[in-house]
Amino acid sequence: MRYLDEMKVELIAIGASILASGGGGDPHIGRIMAINAIRKYGPIPLYSVEELDPQDLLVSTGMIGSPTIMMEKIPNGNESTIACRLMEKRLNRKINAIYPIEAGGINSLLPLATACQLGLPVADVDGMGRAFPEFHMTTFHLDDIDASPFAIVDEKFNQVVIQSKDSHKTEKFARSITVQMGGAAIFAAYPLSPAQAQQSGILGTLSLMQMIGEQVEQARRDKTSIVDTLVSLLYGQVLFRGRINRLDQRSDDGFTRGSVSFEGVDSCEGKSYRVQFQNEFLLAECAERMLCCTPDLIILLDEDTGTPLLSERLRYGIRTVAIGIPAHAKWRTPRGIAIAGPQYFGYASDFKPLESLNAAEKER
């Protein structure tokens, strides 16, 4: 066990904004909530899954809905504790630890604030290893672990608990309810045992995000390249450098959807690029040629500041570096690709690993 203080939360927020792949909600909101909770209640215990009691109950909490709406529809700070109490009432059990459902944005940081408020530890595990737009897109669902009961609470304390036959159906019901709640709300879901988390989760995610934050901050102090740091640390590849020249962005069915286009700069001058998104960046192309696609990660950085760009904060004229990162091996299985690959989102392309796409480009 170790403790998360304000500085560690700051570092985790950096890592969360990078692994979010453009989604996951604004980490700034979650960072403030977690830091305020630590100032009030003290540092947060962080346990590895192996350190938990075999009888413990783990529950995830976070935001569901459109990140664009969440920028204006700020949580009041009590929704997640109410959602957790609903979960306990439904299961007739006390929650023993909180964990983030994904690695990204507010959904890596809100669980820290919730755990702190409830006096609980955080488990160092998640269900995605990145951020995805839909709640059945978890490594738990790959092993047929249900997201239900799925408790949803909005800022007016409207409350709904969903019990469904599988996580995909739960996602559909939860998304519809979230739209009726104004497009964004807070959830508690995916109750697990430590054995299930060990078998089906992605371990050490919060530690990884903290390490990413440390490496990025070191690069800033040393005035070295943040892009090179991330490419080396995460086995990534630079996809292109460009300037945003067109943006199609909308809130639709509880998601931030659209595409962003770039005119190439530097070595990419004269080329055109496009990235499509549904909360997260899902497909990067150059003249219809695929550069990277989900479930691999597409990360857009503001080249001037090294700051990761969220899909809801894209703006014309930003000079951008696009980086591709290989997804966790669980997502590159046939079932992982069926659940979170490009064809699930309606793209015609088959999934091709980032490495193979890059190798093909080098042969040109």
How is this fold's topology laid out?
Blueprint: E1 2-4, H1 6-19, H2 27-41, E2 44-47, E3 58-65, H3 67-70, H4 79-91, E4 97-99, H5 106-118, E5 122-123, E6 125-126, H6 139-142, E7 150-153, E8 159-162, H7 167-180, E9 184-192, H8 194-200, E10 202-203, H9 205-222, H10 226-233, E11 237-252, E12 255-264, E13 272-278, E14 280-286, E15 289-293, E16 297-302, E17 319-325, H11 334-340, H12 354-362
Shape: globular
CATH superfamily of the largest domain: CV3147-like domain
Biggest sheet descriptor? 7 strands, antiparallel
Query: Strand pairing plus helix content: what structural class?
Result: alpha+beta
CATH class of the largest domain: Alpha Beta
Count the domains: 2
Averaging pLDDT over every residue, what do you get? 93
Total number of β-strand segments? 17
CATH topology (level 3) name of the largest domain: CV3147-like fold
* Strand composition percent: 25-35%
Q: Number of DSSP helices?
A: 12
Q: Low-confidence stretches at least 5 residues in length (pLDDT < 50)?
A: none
H-E order: EHHEEHHEHEEHEEHEHEHHEEEEEEEHH
Pfam families: S-Me-THD_C, S-Me-THD_N
InterPro entries: S-Me-THD-like_C, S-Me-THD_C_sf, S-Me-THD_N, S-Me-THD_N_sf
Domain S-Me-THD N-terminal: 8-163
Domain S-Me-THD-like C-terminal: 166-354
